[in-house]
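Lecture notes, unit on protein representations.

Consider one protein chain, 340 amino acids long.
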Amino acid sequence: MTKNVLYALLVGRTQNLGDDIQTLAAAQFLPKIDFIIERDHPRLSKNLREKLRSNTHVKVIMNGWFTHKPLSWMPDPLLKPLFVSFHIHPPISKVFLGRKSVVEYLKHNEPIGARDFYTFRMLNELDIASFFSGCLSLVLDYRYKFSKKIINHDYILLCDLDKEVVDMIKDILIERRIPYISFHQKLFTSSLELLLPQGVKRIIRRVIGENGYQLASAILYELFDASKIRESIIWNRMKLAEKYLAVIAHSRLVITSRLHTALPALSFGVPVIFVNNNLGDPRFSGYLQFFYSFTPSKFINTIKDRKIDLFESLEIQNHELLERIKKRLIRIVDKFINEP
């Protein structure tokens, strides 16, 4: 009997625009979107399951960061998943992979395309067939074609860098009359947090510190604004993510601390200088070979000592290997989407 195939789009309901970029990376491959599925609770509603015929399966690309709900995560039986660009958050990996049901589910859907070497090693230690697939945001150029002929793309993009780093770069760029765009990426804020008076927020910041305040804001967003997926919000966030991709694609160089800024840049052929205090973060494993990578202090010293001119004719590191990874990713996803 021929299967009736439907398509679901995985979305993460977090403050982070990087999750929307991951959603766009998967959405570009889908011929249509029949359902929205929560990344941390990938289930169909009871009413929806009852409406679907027994010969129906719902294809979904399981890419991105997993998971905020390691003790309850389990995809719906009607979902036919492709696990590619799959990242397991290190602090929850033992809990997540300690569940027999999760290991059995992953084994049933192997091989698992790991987004990073850390996830690859974790899965293989449990005899779950896995391979390093790379991140799906590396192939955003599969659909998104930004013409550089109609926009001045001679600027350098600075995103989420330490103030000392930004100030030093700006001085050099201004001296050389090189245009630039500098910003900190937007986090989506809970409506409850927006209602707090400024004086109250200042007091809270003093009491719990800036990091504690940002964590509390994220929790409030999860509890009050993202408790239910609203499709209008999803599409608006995806449009914002598309605009951000255009800014990346039209730049000649990206200098950032954000992986979800750096990888889309590579997809559009834009070289990346990656400046981060924790280059040993498991999320970065497998990607530093494509960047010019520095800690903030090393980057500042490199520029001051003029050991390398980071603003002239840079090329993507290991470009041929990157292209092979991209081609394989596209081949894997296309096969999944088009097979019966």
